[in-house]
């Protein structure tokens, strides 16, 4: 189940003890928390942690009701780390349990996103098991990314 940005923000407020005060939250506080979340996930994106969160091109273009495609395994990391980021601005102190949970969830997220980069081996001897008699070396690597002049690159 995907969360909206608003649901992430409300869950982060609940994490720091604002759950019962949901109706007392100022719209400026909610917008500021969403911008902090956008900033946090843009930083994660720059580190190579791409989890399907829709980053806005401009901070004013972000929509609270936009549906994210974040996997369920990343929800806890987003909520607890956002709570840690917004708590000082509200004069709240985050519990030690929240900090521990945030660190563990972020570590899990890092482990799930860590993938060794693929390389193609070329100019290596082919070895005794190779049945090709054209060359004693492996074939030159092919470009892993090919797009024609009139094509666009899409990621799915």
The CATH class of the domain at 5-113: Mainly Alpha
Report the mean per-residue pLDDT as an integer. 82
In total, the number of strands is: 0
Number of helices: 4
Which CATH architecture of the domain at 5-113? Orthogonal Bundle
Low-confidence stretches: none
Question: What's the gist of this structure?
Answer:
The protein has helices spanning 5-15, 27-46, 72-86, 96-113. The protein is mainly alpha-helical. The longest helix is centred in the first third of the chain and has 20 residues, at 27-46.
Account of the 3D structure:
The chain is mainly α and 156 residues long. The chain has a domain at 5-113: Hypothetical protein yqbg (Orthogonal Bundle), CATH 1.10.3230. The chain has helices at residues 5-15, 27-46, 72-86, 96-113. Helix 1 packs across helix 2 (27-46), helix 2 (27-46) crosses helix 3 and helix 3 crosses helix 4. It is elongated and about 75 Å long. It starts with a helix and ends in a 43-residue tail after the last helix.
Key traits:
156 residues; mainly alpha; Hypothetical protein yqbg; 41% helix
Question: Could you outline the blueprint of secondary structure elements for this entry?
Answer:
Elements: H1 5-15, H2 27-46, H3 72-86, H4 96-113
Helix pairs in contact: 1-2, 1-3, 2-3, 3-4
């Amino acid at each position: 189940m995907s969360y909206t940005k608003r649901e992430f923000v409300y869950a982060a407020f609940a994490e720091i003890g604002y759950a019962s005060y949901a109706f007392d939250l100022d719209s400026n506080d909610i917008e500021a928390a969403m911008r902090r979340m956008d900033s946090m996930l843009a930083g994660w994106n720059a580190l190579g942690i791409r989890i399907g969160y829709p980053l806005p091109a401009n901070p004013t273009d972000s929509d609270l009701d936009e549906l994210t495609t974040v996997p369920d395994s990343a929800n806890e990391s987003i909520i607890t780390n956002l709570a840690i980021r917004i708590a000082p601005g509200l004069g709240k102190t985050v519990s030690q349990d929240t900090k521990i949970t945030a660190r563990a969830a972020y570590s899990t997220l890092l482990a799930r996103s860590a993938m060794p980069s693929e390389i193609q081996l070329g100019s290596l001897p082919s070895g005794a098991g190779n049945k090709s008699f054209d060359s004693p070396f492996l074939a030159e690597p092919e470009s892993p990314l090919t797009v024609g002049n009139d094509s666009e690159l899409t990621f799915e």
